[in-house]
Amino acid sequence: MDDLSDSSQPDFDHLFKLLLIGDSGVGKSSLLQSFTSNNFEDLSPTIGVDFKIKLVTLGGKKLKLAIWDTAGQERFRTLTTSYYRGAQGIIMVYDVTRRETFSDLSDVWAKEIDLYSTNPDCIKMLVGNKVDKEGERVVTKREGIEFARQQGCLFLECSAKTRTNVEQCFEELVLKILETPSLLAQGSKGLRKDIFKQRQPETISSSSGCC
User: Fold this and answer.
1) Is residue 173 very low, low, confident or very high in pLDDT (cuts 50, 70, 90)?
2) Residue 154, beta-bridge partner list
3) Are strands 154-157 and 123-129 parallel, antiparallel or unpaired?
């Protein structure tokens, strides 16, 4: 993982801000952990907001991804809304074994994106996590595809535990950002410094967790 003090160094072509949202316990933090460190941990719920840095090379470009992991609990909701600001990519995560986490996508999370996202061209991805628990599945893949179509989202199912499709989730999202001129321009300049100076309410305690 890259050190934040290096954020001003010209070691990348573009810097993108990505945001993970969804109910508590759907596996957002585990998904992020699996992507950034190539291992799986069953993590406790995130308190406030956490984030990690990942350097990747995609589309012939060196990219620095600042990935923000938000708490899913309702009591943290007002603290995390500011993190939508400036995000070029947003990943909505649900648990295929818990119907309520899928229902909350339309009842809560899609509405939050509409309210707080500042990028009209922001790329959205819908991710159904925990497909390793196929025997406990209650949300079908077809339902996920249909909701993604309605919302204009990319869609994938994955397992943070087995790492199935984990890298593809982030790579497909980032490749789509690279194809979007307005987002590409943002990643080349303004956010390089500001992305690490996210205004945090004093009550936020940043900590690793399972979402």
Assistant:
1) very high
2) 125
3) parallel
Q: 3-state secondary structure string, the chain?
A: CCCHHHCCCCCCCEEEEEEEECCCCCCHHHHHHHHHHCCCCCCCCCCCEEEEEEEEEECCEEEEEEEEEECCCHHHHHHHHHHHCCCCEEEEEEECCCHHHHHHHHHHHHHHHHHHCCCCCCEEEEEEECHHHHHHCCCCHHHHHHHHHHHCCEEEECECCCCECHHHHHHHHHHHHHCCHHHHHHHHCCHHHHCCCCCCCCCCCCCCCCC
> What pLDDT, in 10s, does the model give residues 107-134?
999 999 999 999 999 999 999 999 999 9
Give the C-alpha distances (Å, rounded to integers) separating 89 from 42, 75, 99.
Answer: 25, 24, 24
Residue 90 sits at φ, ψ, to 5 deg, of: -130, 125
Strand partners, 68: 19, 51
From edge to edge, which strands make up the β-sheet containing 14-21? 49-58, 61-70, 14-21, 89-95, 123-129, 154-157
> CA 66 from chain center: how many Å?
10
Residue type, 208: S
In the predicted model, is pLDDT for residue 135 greater than 90?
Answer: yes
Q: Residue 44 has which token pair?
A: 């406790």
pTM: predicted TM-score of the whole model, two decimal places:
0.80
Residues 6+ apart with CB under 8 A from 191: 15, 17, 86
